[in-house]
Amino acid sequence: MSLPAVKALTFDVFGTVVDWRTSIARELRAALEPAGHEFDWLQLADEWRGGYQPALEQVRSGARPWVTLDVLHHENLVELLAKHDIAELSESEIEELSHAWWRLDPWPDAVEGLSRLKQRFIIATLSNGNIALMVNLAKHGALPWDAILGAEISHSYKEQPITYLGSAEALGLRPDECAMVAAHNDDLVAAGALGFRTMYVNRPAEHGPGQTTDIRALHDFDIAATSLTDLARQLEC
């Protein structure tokens, strides 16, 4: 498919590029099982992730000042540990575990797909993840970004318009010269309303076998792809 005006692809990362659920389950197990704890580790990962949107909304609504996603992940982890009466981790161990989000594995198609897309387009994150998180995640998974954009450069969180517009502006591009790539319908709708082109990537396993949302494209996006390599194929990369 030809989209001649598009110069940059901006990517949602959690769920679209990396598999947060099984990665976080692995990290929780490695940290807690040696101390004798037994959980459904995937369910525990879901619980930690469950605090994500409520924490973002506190910032989006103005109920609290801007803080990075690393801070929110740390706070949500402390609450999760208290909920399950896990008290033996030291502050440094909690800090290290909170950085589990820096060590998420890419989906199997991600590195190849991004590398192919990079040959023709600028590729950049447009994520709620802060810069330190995104840089460490890129190093962990060999993700070949040209730029780390998104929430921290505008001190806002998706789906606030400035999060998208600030990333386009940072690249010196108009919104219509950028495409949002995401596995989440709401993210694409928000970007599309601001003039971004929209590219859906299907990730029906993001939340496990019981996933009921974002299992397909629900809107008339510019492209609907089954993977990042399929997206590269459709864009003739």
Automatic annotation (TrEMBL):
A GO MF term: hydrolase activity, acting on acid halide bonds, in C-halide compounds
SUPFAM superfamilies: HAD-like
One of the Pfam families matching this protein, by short name: Hydrolase
Keyword Hydrolase: yes
InterPro entries listed in its UniProt record: 2-HAD (IPR006328), HAD-like_sf (IPR036412), HAD-SF_hydro_IA (IPR006439), HAD_sf (IPR023214), S-2-haloacid_dehalogenase (IPR051540)
The entry's keywords: Hydrolase
Name of the protein this chain belongs to: 2-haloacid dehalogenase
Organism: Compostimonas suwonensis
